[in-house]
Request: fold
Amino acid sequence: MEELMDILTELHPDVDYDSCTTLVDDRIIDSFDIISIVSEVAARLDVQIPAEEIVPENFNSAKALAALIERLENE
Amino acid sequence: MQQRNVLEYLENTVKRLPGKTAYEGEDSELTFEQVYKSSRAIGSYIAAEAIYGEPVVIFMRKSPEAVAAFFGTVYGGCYYVPIDEEMPRMRIELILKSLDSKLMIVDEATRAKAEQFDFDGRIVNYEEISVLDEDKAALEDIRRRQLDTDPIYIVFTSGSTGIPKGVIACHRSVIDYIENLSAVLHFDENTRFGNQSPFYFDACLKELYPTIKFGASTVIVPRQLFMFPIKLVEFLNEKKINTVCWVVSALSMISAFGVLDKTVPQYLRTVAFGSEVFHIKQFNRWRAALPKARFVNLYGPTEATGMSCWYEVDREFSEGDVIPIGRPFENTEIILLDDDNKRATEGEICIRGTCVTLGYYNNPERTAEAFVQNPLNNHYPEFIYRTGDIGKLNERGELVFVSRKDYQIKHMGHRIELGEIEANVNSLDGIYSSCAVYDREKDRIGLYYTGSIDEKSLGAILKEKIPRYMLPNRTVRLETMPLTPNGKIDRKLISGLK
Reply:
């Protein structure tokens, strides 16, 4: 989770990821950010996020993203 | 008679296909007849306001109605300036200031935001003026007065001094472009475009005008879908999109996530891409997934009305190869000039022809720098546009893009001056110095600065000043700015910082 927070904070230092649950809906992150997140997660956490998991629900909050990563790690 | 007004496209098509959908958006769609009627109503309104030959700001949601407002402005003998709700407020204010426009067309969704701008002109709602009765006599009178050298739009592009530059283009350039582009890409009445480009860039000319020329259709792809590749492909299939003219990053996003192994945009037959290097690995995935489709690389600056060169992929490319930009469209010449302004096989790409736009609006200094007398002709006035791009001819005689002369970059399909980012950062209180660098390999912008503002606050302030696509992907505060022995910021050293 800490590593994920680092990845997110590097992208948008000004966003409060603890409380924000509308990262996608409010256009806080864009398509570039999604690409960055997926590639950084692969590089730093060694978790591949498959295309079918790249959906708004999984990217709207840091919590949702962390849950996704945990799920993928356990698979 | 020779065509001299872009609206003739619409007028010919509406007779043939009045009930066909021309533009389809997320919440609404307009037939050719609706586009025709709404735009004539808007033109009549502008005529009644006695505004002629002036910029009209269009600040609307990206929608079919915004397109009708563009054409309506042209019916009124004025030129449209698209502004987007996603543009940061400071940038919009700068643009409005440079225009000094008398009229802004908004919609219900953007009205409240528009009223906050420092704008002296009148603000009217699309919903009200698009349903007025047309004034046929007034519109005919405007048509008689209009020349094909009169402007129809201004679009703003990044300027290294921090102030965006407004490129202004006329009927004749757009007609020349649309005719030649259509011939290359084989558009016809059955073409179904999936539009990706924002309306405030010239890139959307590729869809908006061929749609009225051929009676084709344009579906505006919801912006959010470009974040979610599988949904994007499903959308293309649902809407039976057969033609896309997209930035490379939108296409690579789909292929890089392996989406093409699972689902393929089955109707696509023409894939035009441009403005950026297409990594061969991604490109080959596309080609393998769509073996029957035509793939066309396009190249060109806003200052030459969109695209100037094209190359249809006709051979295999392997990793490390560069897809050429090919050759110019008909009626366009590319001259490669060396440092002595002599014709060369490698040099600055300079463009000659009807496609060269009228220059930068209210900006004679910048215009004079880039729109210059053809140095190969000292007999009569002839302007060419100097792109600042370096190109060369390969062994097959095809043009290839080599690099930029300056600090302009292409990032996610957008043209950005690193100097514009720096100028905005440097203008802030508490900033001592800054340097923006671009990592081409990763397609990331890095910002390094010294000053008393922390990274978090700087990020928040910048969002108000520069468009999101210009925002640095990484912002780092330094104790001291590395300098070269000459006392200049050491860009090379900073580029290597990790």
About this structure: The CA atoms of residues 9 and 15 of chain A lie 7 Å apart. Chain A has four helices and no strands.
